[in-house]
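Long-time lurker, first post. I've been practising inverse folding by hand and with some scripts of my own, and I keep getting stuck on stretches where the structure tokens seem ambiguous. Below is the full token string for one chain I'm working on. Before anyone asks, I'm not after the true native sequence, just a reasonable design that respects the backbone. If someone could post their per-position residues I'd love to compare against what I wrote down in my notebook.
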């Protein structure tokens, strides 16, 4: 269906007209997929509710300054995410392709993102996040 319609995939029980899943892959019991730049929380919540399970969802789109995590357990959504000001906490060395954060040099900005998220508290959110 993804190839035919260019809309990606949505389970038949999902009540959405957007939020398609692209390039779906399962590796080490972790579901990986792509979306059209924004997290598709409503779709994933409907899938979890359908199968009566929870989830831990990570998302990133560094070019749009989106990076965060969402968990869903027993009907409660919790999230933490990078704020725009968090991206000002580190610098990129374009010559060496490294990042400096709190006096340490990192080869990946994702290592810094994870440190910043670990320091944040999860907050309860509604599904319109």
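-- Answer (accepted) --
I ran through it position by position. Result:
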């Amino acid at each position: 269906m993804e190839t035919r319609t260019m809309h990606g995939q949505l389970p038949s029980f999902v009540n959405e007209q957007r939020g398609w899943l692209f390039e779906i892959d399962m590796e080490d019991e972790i579901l990986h997929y792509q979306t059209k730049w924004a997290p598709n929380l409503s779709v994933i919540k409907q899938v979890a509710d359908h199968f009566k399970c929870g989830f831990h969802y990570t998302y990133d789109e560094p070019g749009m300054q989106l990076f965060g995590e969402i968990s869903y357990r027993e009907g409660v959504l919790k999230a933490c995410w990078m704020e725009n000001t968090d991206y000002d906490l580190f610098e990129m060395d374009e010559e060496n392709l490294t990042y400096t954060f709190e006096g340490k040099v990192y080869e990946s900005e994702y290592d810094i993102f994870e440190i910043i998220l670990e320091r944040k508290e999860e907050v309860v959110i509604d599904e319109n996040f």
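A couple of notes from the structure itself: The chain has a mean pLDDT of 89. Residues 2-82+121-125 form one domain. Happy to go over any region you disagree with.
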